[in-house]
């Protein structure tokens, strides 16, 4: 569903360090596996959607900045609290491109960036807490930023659950500017039900995911007005 341009030159690729048990699922990075929809991690429900945002470098940069500054989460009605940078310096480890292939990172250091209220932009190894409701149920969770990608034609990051969520798993958010000058926003995820209700009624996991995807689109797409 997602269009993919040719491989672009790498500007920045960062991945945080991880200790055993820092996330509550085993398949770290699986949202970038090309066969996620066919072979999701065990007992999890996969999901993927892509939307065209427009065209051109300005649209790409604007959408990328909005994404890294948590616009998708906030405009989706989720509150960020307790945002903490990685406890130890991150290392420039291997991450993955849109096709799931490993990429060697750049060693370029990136100056920390902050939004207007002082919240740091997404950074590798960062932890945060989300609060809110989706489909009438709480969406509280502690999350870790698995990796952050800043390439010439691709910007994005991956979030993984640490604890306290009704589901466990991972979300990847990517803004891509392809060779046809089109800008696309792709979200991929896999959710393993934790709560009794979601384990008993798996269709609720899909409904929750559909609602989240729709909210993310409204947050990033220029076709919708983003709440202040």
UniProtKB/TrEMBL annotation:
Q: Which domain of life is it from?
A: Bacteria
Residue ranges constituting the DUF1990 domain according to the UniProt record: 25-95, 123-218
Question: Can you tell me which residues the record assigns to a coiled coil?
Answer: none
Q: Which Pfam families does the record cross-reference, listed alphabetically?
A: DUF1990 (PF09348)
Q: Which PANTHER family does the entry link to? A: UPF0548 PROTEIN (PTHR34202)
Q: What is this protein called?
A: DUF1990 domain-containing protein
């Amino acid at each position: 569903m997602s269009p993919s341009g040719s491989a672009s030159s790498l500007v920045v690729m960062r991945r945080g360090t991880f200790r055993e048990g820092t996330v509550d699922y085993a398949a770290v990075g699986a949202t970038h596996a090309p066969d996620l929809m066919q072979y999701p991690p065990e007992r999890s429900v996969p999901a993927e959607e892509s939307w065209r945002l427009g065209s051109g470098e300005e649209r790409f940069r604007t959408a990328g900045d909005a994404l890294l500054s948590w616009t998708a989460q906030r405009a989706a009605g989720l509150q960020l609290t307790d945002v903490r940078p990685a406890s130890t310096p991150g290392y420039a480890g291997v991450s993955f491109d849109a096709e799931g292939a490993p990429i060697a990172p750049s060693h370029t250091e990136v100056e920390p960036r902050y939004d207007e209220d002082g919240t740091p932009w997404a950074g590798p190894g960062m932890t945060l807490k989300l609060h809110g409701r989706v489909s009438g149920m709480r969406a509280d969770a502690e999350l870790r930023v698995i990796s952050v990608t800043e390439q010439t034609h691709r910007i994005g990051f991956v979030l993984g659950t640490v604890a306290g969520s009704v589901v466990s798993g991972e979300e990847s958010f990517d803004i891509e500017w392809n060779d046809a000058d089109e800008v696309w926003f792709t979200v991929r995820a896999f959710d393993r039900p934790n709560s009794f209700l979601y384990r008993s009624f798996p269709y609720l996991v899909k409904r929750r995911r559909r609602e989240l995807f729709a909210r993310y689109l409204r947050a990033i797409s220029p076709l919708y007005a983003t709440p202040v």
